[in-house]
Design brief:
heterodimer, A: 94 residues, alpha+beta, Ubiquitin-like (UB roll), 5-stranded mixed β-sheet, 2 helices, 19% helix, globular, B: 352 residues, mainly beta, Methylamine Dehydrogenase, Chain H, 4-stranded antiparallel β-sheet, 1 helix, WD40/YVTN_repeat-like_dom_sf (chain B), Xyloglucanase_GH74 (chain B), Photosystem II stability/assembly factor-like uncharacterized protein (chain B), Sulfur_Carrier/Prot_Modifier (chain A), Molybdopterin converting factor small subunit (chain A)
């Protein structure tokens, strides 16, 4: 099935300049599974999003059809066809 | 050309000069990343920088055109193979072999590169050390912040960490021994433990590799047996607290230190900015403050002082208040190179 990942401007340089990734994912699909596909294609993008334990970086938010994934099941959040994952840096830093 | 790299909590600045008087300061490179580690290899020349984005994590980048362009590998240059994650690179240390580069990290670990710093592998002997569970975190985090490869023997490396102290290997990193005999840990019930000290910085001159100088979390020390034992050289300094310790590029007996009043009072004594220099390996010290300001209510961090390799030697330091001072005459006189930068956490200088 197909899902869409929307990237913020600051991360497009590590995704061949793309703002939107359309990915074909095997079912059953989870957020972590999508990020694994992202990692295979754009490893530098993946490590902006997750550390080497595949833990989501604390100050990066992943909105799954409008809901931040940590209010759902985190990386294990199940996805349906045409899910939109919007990645946004959180409000942090000084 | 002289190159001065200035790592701050919000990016890297690169300053160039032909005469070490007039500086062209450019940046920020890698804005909004914390730059705790930078190295300049004048043999290539090449600049290596450890960056840490609060959003997107840490990395190591290299430039062979003095910062015009930066290269970052697709895969993480430094990554833990086990259940740990890199938080920050605290030290990038060059060796006599241009391909071999060490990285000291948070959490406390040592990584080794054999491809000039593009990729690193964990030095497992230190990571699996039985003491590791007891290494603690100071305010700055638990880190190997000092890496001193031996100038002649690639099997010998000395590291320092906070907390934990000094460790040495003589077999290329397979086994490590704590080397803190005589270094005080006033904050522990046993003030002279085998390990657990909060060592802030260790410095060594390549022409005298058995001589080490150490700035401790209270205490300034010298070793004449490559870290086997330590003796105090704090007499003659106004205070034994501080972070920086630097050796002159051509004289193993000349060292520079930036005293800070105390753990509980992290300003230079009386708010007077002063570098202290010893020309006799720490037996006596002289304050150097010509051109440096009073009312300096800030501090100099562990890697925020350095020397270049020129003659006479250049000495440089940066402050948490975003100022960088330089001396082109071994510390006799100083000028401000730049101000209003973010907190300076590391500086490195070289001729390129």
């Amino acid at each position: 099935m197909r899902v869409v990942v929307l990237l913020p401007g600051v991360l497009r340089s590590v995704a061949d300049g793309r703002s939107k990734l359309e990915l074909d994912i095997e079912e059953p699909a989870t957020l972590a599974g999508v990020l694994d596909v992202v990692a295979a294609r754009y490893p530098m993008l993946d490590r902006r999003l997750r550390d080497e334990r595949s833990i989501l970086r604390r100050y990066v938010n992943f909105y799954v059809d409008g809901e931040e994934c940590r209010r759902l099941d985190g990386p294990a959040t199940r996805l349906r066809a045409d899910t939109e994952i919007r990645i946004l840096p959180s409000v942090a830093g000084g | 050309m002289h190159l001065l790299a200035i790592g701050t909590r919000k990016g890297l600045w690169l300053a160039t000069s032909e005469d070490r008087v007039s500086w062209d300061v450019r940046g920020p490179h890698h804005p909004m990343t914390e730059v705790y580690a930078v190295a300049i290899d004048p043999r290539v020349p090449r600049v290596l920088v450890g960056v840490d984005s609060s959003h997107f994590g840490p990395s190591v980048l290299t430039s062979t055109d003095l910062g015009e362009t930066w290269q970052e590998p697709d895969h993480a240059p430094i990554a833990f193979p086990e259940d740990a994650a890199l938080e920050r690179v605290w030290q990038l240390a060059l060796t006599p072999d241009p391909d071999v580069v060490y990285a000291g990290t948070q959490p406390s670990a040592l990584f080794r590169s054999v491809d000039g710093g593009r990729s690193f592998a964990l030095v497992e002997g230190l990571w699996k050390h039985p003491h590791r569970a007891e290494w603690g975190a100071g305010f700055g985090g638990q880190a190997v912040h000092t890496v001193l490869p031996h100038p002649d023997d690639p099997d010998q490396v000395t590291v320092a960490m906070s907390t934990g102290g000094v460790y040495r290997t003589f077999d290329g990193g397979t086994s490590w021994e704590a080397s803190n005999r005589g270094v005080k840990a006033y904050f522990l019930p046993d003030p002279y433990p085998e390990y657990g000290q909060c060592v802030h910085k260790v410095a060594r001159h390549p022409a005298a590799p058995d001589r080490l100088y150490l700035q401790n979390h209270h205490g300034v020390y010298r070793s004449s047996d490559a870290g086997g034992t330590w003796e105090s050289i704090a007499d003659g300094l106004p205070t034994d607290f501080g972070f920086a310790m630097v050796v002159h590029p051509h004289d193993p007996d000349t060292i520079y230190n930036f005293p800070i009043t105390a753990d509980s009072n992290r300003f230079p004594p009386e708010g007077r900015c002063a570098v202290y220099r010893s020309a006799d390996a720490g037996d006596t010290w002289t304050a150097l403050r010509t051109g440096l300001p009073d009312g300096f209510w800030t501090a100099v961090m562990r890697d925020a002082m350095c020397v270049d390799a020129a003659s006479p030697a250049g000495v440089y330091f940066g402050s948490r208040s975003g100022e960088v001072y330089g001396s082109a005459d071994e510390g006799e006189s100083w000028q401000r190179i730049v101000e209003h930068l973010p907190d300076v956490v590391c500086v490195r200088a070289a001729e390129v």
